[in-house]
Amino acid sequence: MPTLLAAAGAQDTGKHSARVTDLADRIGWIVGLALFVALVYWLMRQGWQWRRTLQGGLPALPQPPEPTGDVPEPLLTLQGRYHGSTTAGEWLDRIVVHGLGVRSKAALTLTEQGLTVDRTGAPGFHVPAAALRGARLDRAIAGKVLPEGGLLVITWEHGGTLIDSGFRSDHAAEHSAWVTAIGRLSGEHLNEAVASTDTRQDEKEGAK
Predict the structure, then answer these.
(1) What is the number of H-type helices and E-type strands within the chain?
(2) Residue 57: which region, alpha, beta or left (left: phi > 0; alpha: psi -120 to 50)?
(3) 171: how many CB neighbours lie within 10 A of its CB?
(4) In terms of DSSP H, where are the helices of 55-154?
(5) Alpha-carbon distance 54 to 64, whole Å?
(6) Burial class (CB in 10 A: 0-12, 13-18, 19+), 204
(7) pTM for the full model?
(8) Which of 45, 76, 156, 169 has the fewest CB atoms within 10 Å, counting from its CB?
(9) pLDDT tens for residues 16-49?
(10) Cα(129)–Cα(124) distance, rounded to whole angstroms?
(11) Nearest by Cα to 84 from 163, 27, 185, 201
(12) Which tens digit of pLDDT belongs to each residue from 150-187?
């Protein structure tokens, strides 16, 4: 009888030790996972700080002009989301300064004066018509990938840097109209700039 009791006691002790070991292993895994997540978060923050330092030369974003007289009639409006901005042609080279790295809801208004972007929870900005360089349908920007043609990417120039900004309308069928309208608007201003350059060149040659 004492032998049976001793055997039972040893069995219970073994089970208890196994439970303690399992608990220790689980705690170890949880602590390790928490440390890994903290490391990834720290590396991401360091990456953003590094990008901010590199992009520190980008001027503050332009704001909509003060209304004078009649408010320009909107050519197009859009409700949707802003998905980020990158250096033009480099869909992973994210721009983070001046709030451009923050994804947010957005309302876009296009007029003959340019593009106004109002954002929820992040700074809005204005792109003068003369700074627009075109628009296209795309599927990825700033690490965000959507179905083919699911993004409206608008290219604009600011502080000597060409920027791609990605938007998605609540009604994706609207994107094509924006590509056409911005292409027309940017083309008109490009033609004006070329004509102005030619005029100045003719004036210089005439003065010789």
Answers:
(1) 2, 9
(2) alpha
(3) 10
(4) none
(5) 26
(6) exposed
(7) 0.69
(8) 45
(9) 555 656 777 777 777 777 766 665 555 555 555 5
(10) 16
(11) 163
(12) 999 999 999 999 999 999 999 999 999 999 999 999 98
